[in-house]
Fold:
Amino acid sequence: MTDIDVAWTALGGDPALVSRVTTTERPGALAARLGVRELARACVGACALAAAELAARRAGLSEVPGVRVDDGAVAAAFHSERHLLVDGRAPVVFAPLSRFWRTADGWVRTHANYPHHRARLLGALDLPPDASVEAVAARLAERSAPDVEETVYDAGGLAVALRTPKEWQAHEQAAEVAARPLVERERLGSGPARVLPPLDRAAARLLPAAGLRVLDLTRVLAGPVATRTLALLGADVLRLDAPWLPELPDQHADTGFGKRSATLDLTTGRDTFEELLATADVVVTGYRPGALDRFGLSPEALTARRPGLVVAQVSAWGAYGPWAGRRGFDSLVQVATGIAATEGSADEPGALPAQALDHGSGYLLAAAVLRALTEQSYDGGGRFVRLALARTARWLTDDIRPVPATGAPYAGPDAWLAETDSTLGRLRHALPPVSFAGGPADWARPPVPWGSDGACWW
Structure:
């Protein structure tokens, strides 16, 4: 069974459809000790196949369109946040305090890209708000990695001790993660089959998600990648953020293609949210499990008010086990699960060549939404799908094996980069890797400034 077979099976797809996928291999793309290229190829391939399947269903095609997966396009897309240029300016991917640090007994990695996470990190270390990198390094060098991990977590910050694969396997959270499927899928309630307006098979582009409304309550990076993909496929995607929690501008630009962006206080703007929900088809969330439940945004509460809804969730560690309530990012999951140790050396930890857990999980989440919509067109009911970066990491470390690629070597991303004008400036960006016969080649519109749209549907 190929890696694409595994991903497609996890999504509940018909195994026979995998034959519709063809791959262009490019040696050197996403090179790593672990099978990063294979993971990326499988996630994008499964997503494109789910899009083609839904397109065939809506257009009344006798055969699912062929899917094309090019390692070059996939590699460029998995580096999309690094390839973005805004009027020629390169993005800031990691802040100075988001990095590896030596501790008294090993290594720890912190994440402090957001101002509030930086403040919590420094507060946990009893350092002033303007503390330098040198001051943080000196403080961490005095303490053990597990102590730093727990102290910063207790303060609401983000720090994870470096673990070997064996150490992670012995952790209780790892056991909880291993007990779950790669893609969690659940039917919520009953109801009539979803009626999807037919697509014009003679149209220039088949947009399988056309006419569907998606509420996007996600933060960097996996969730926004999923909703960016749904926007590519024609969905009306409205991203909602708390007014006091702005997104990092470069990250928002990279993942904002095809979307609109609004701010909404879920405490005072409850009526507005309910109006949006009343005609939404999909809700995607990317916060810590349970963090939005107090606003009535659990899958059960959402589908009770909006029967037939598809609810999709992605988190770092999963909605189970002792780390269920912890914040996390791709870089930290790599450190905890032994990936950083595997990709590093005897002298220092390493990292994957891309934020592959984020991007891979994002494409799988989009695929899960698309497959849920296809399933609903037959037998109705609400759907709940969920992924965790830590579970994607387990697939990478335990089940995927790198295989030497054949074909022309990867010569860099230039063939899969494009430029477009926007209200943010002239943008260079990675083209979408999700490709099927008759499908879209690029997003219909560029990203907009954060919070610049109204909280309403078009």
